[in-house]
Each structure stands twice: as structure tokens, then as C-alpha cells.
Specification:
6-stranded antiparallel β-sheet; globular; Jelly Rolls; alpha+beta; 3 helices; 3-stranded antiparallel β-sheet
Amino acid sequence: MERETQTYFFPDDGRIPNHPDFPLVVYQNALKDTGLAERIVTRHGWSNSWSGSVFPYHHYHSNTHEVLIALRREAVIQFGGEKGAAIPFKSGDAVVIPAGVGHKKLSSSPDFTVLGAYPGGVQYDMKTGKPNEREEAVKQIKQAALPANDPITGKREPLLEIWVK
């Protein structure tokens, strides 16, 4: 199957700020061999990786972007807050989540597993949309550094071609 990308832009919903400029980028069929996922993203400059599931509540990272790669099975992940999009996510798919974009697992198979990583290995923060975290989070979202490379291709495209116009 050929890799396909889709983009989704989410406006600030009052609770989850989302990113003011960058869309979510979904890569369907990103990797044929998910066993190589960590090696691939690390080689492309994305590290501080972890594997597990996605939290079942809305959260976001204000200080960094994030890549998620579905390693095993499938899930439906909601991006962009309560009014966002519910996107099917299956083994081999990937998504680059801009700083500030909310995400939560709506449903999954019992052994659904993802790999998460961050450009330059940034130590990510965890925000849940509480009013007292918003002002600082909005500032940090705008300051989150652009990654040097696309985590899947290791090149400028497609991620930076989409984000930098």
C-alpha cells in the first residue's frame, strides 16, 4: 500500500488551544515494518521515545510537537479537542501532532500500542486544558521549535512542506 498524507486544522476551542498555524499531519501506511519505527524516527532526529497507549482524556504538549506511530492493532483517536476529528489509526499509520493539538483515545483493540517521539528529544510537558495553564501554554506553543526533518521520511517533505509556506 502506498503512503498517503492527510491534514487537519483545528481552531482553538476555548479549552484546547491547538496550534494557530500548523495542521495535524496523518500518514496512512507510513511504515510497512513497525518493528523499525523507533530506529527510523531516531535516525531522523526524533527521540525521547516511549511505547504504550494514548491517554483516554484530552491532553496536549505545549512545548513540542509529537509523532505517534501505531505499532500494533488499531484505535480511534480524537484530535483537536471535543469538537475535533475522530481518526482511525491502525498498525503502520503515523501522525505528527503540532504543539498544542489535543488528542485522546476514544476506543482501541485491547493490545493497541503506539510509539511516541519528539523532535530533538525534547522533554515534553503535559497539559489538559485547565484554565490556569492556558496563558503560558499558548506562549509555549508559538515558541515550539520546528523539527529539522520529517520523522518518517527523514527529509523536508512532506511535513515541512506542509508546515512552512
